[in-house]
Amino acid sequence: MYKKIIGSILMLLGTSVGAAMLALPIVTAHESVAMSFFLLFFSWLMMTVGAYSLLEVNLWLKSDTNMVSMASHTIGRFGKVLTWVIYLLLLYSLICAYLSGLSDILQNLLLNFHIAIPIWFSIFLVLGIFGTIVYRGIHSVDILNRGLMFLKLVAFFILVVAMSQHVNFTLPFEGDYEWHNSVLMVMLTSFGYAIIIPSLRNYLNNDKVLKKVVLIGSLIPLLLYAIWIFFIQGIISRTGEHGLINILNSENTNSMLMNAMTLKMNTALVAEMVKLFISICAATSFLGVSVCLTDFIADGLSIQKKSKSGIIVYLLAFLPPLFIVLISPGIFVTALHYAGIWCLLLLIIIPLMMLYWGRYKKGFMQNKLLPGKIFLLGSFFVSIYLLVVNILQV
């Protein structure tokens, strides 16, 4: 059981602390570090409320229930259809972002060995490798993810130690103090760990342990993100050829960030750690989100993934993102922004609706994880306000 607990926390970390983490110091290129931290904490708070709403609803039902069935049991047919649509939009957006990021990184890494491949081939190569692992099931993903997360955390702490020697402590405090909704949307995406909660409940088969796992799995990313933003903003200037603003406006954000960090910390070990860390971030994100999407599609279509018709699940999961990324390979940051909007809907607004309706209309009152009506309604209307503002700015 101990190994499953560690594995579950690492899967939560792998889903959160991934490719979206790479985008955080880039999308905050115009923000001061103080404003960045405020937006980061606000995002964590909102997404944690959504996560515990989703967890409470899931605990009312049997352990193999995913979000479509949860919505159907609580808000009815409308909720079921809405969840289907938004879930697909969110996870397709995330897979588009991570597939784009991974293919950009792979292409850049191969260039270091004087191997030039076209971006379309890099996209197919990435999908072939990681799609096969996902096809083998959550146990295979868990084992690989444990190894990748160990390497990621080792690389992260080596990078933090190395970066601490190069930090200009005035750089992070440059920038403005304005509220940028586009930044908030990417930050919400970076705390999107709740999508894997139904899968983890089935995997752990221990509801009490799951509650603690979710809390730990949300707090660790908050700490790591704050450290990461501060150090990146402290070593890479906002302006200039290799500056954060220029990286933000590029179609090759991940490879440009990797190259900018390598230039600033010009040692062989650090350069390799940069490449390793950024590569693993994108890989673990892709794996975690892919598990969620395939479980969701299998639940929604009532198909066993290991049955003969299970291949349909994987085709539906990977073909749409593949076509989108082939058409627009540099979609990484844009896809994360749209994912933030879907995240707000799927992982905060809909869980709050399910929780409120389930508690006060259906009479499910067990396993209370959040306060009562006033808190739930307040959180709901704040979320609706943020959604409307961001839709109007798209």
**Residue share in helix:** over 70%
**Helix run count:** 16
What is the strand tally? Answer: 0
Biggest sheet overview: none
Taking all Cα atoms into account, the compactness measure Rg is 20 Å
Structural class: mainly alpha
What is the distance, rounded to the nearest whole angstrom, between the alpha carbons of the first and last residues?
45 Å
Overall geometry comes to globular
Mean pLDDT score = 84
Low-confidence sequence ranges: none
| Helix-strand string | HHHHHHHHHHHHHHHH
Strand content: under 5%
How does this structure look, described?
The chain has 394 residues and is an all-alpha fold. 77% of the residues lie in helices and 0% in strands. The chain has 16 helices and no strands. It has helices spanning 2-16, 19-27, 33-60, 67-74, 77-111, 119-135, 138-164, 181-190, 197-204, 207-235, 244-248, 253-264, 268-301, 311-327, 332-360, 373-393.
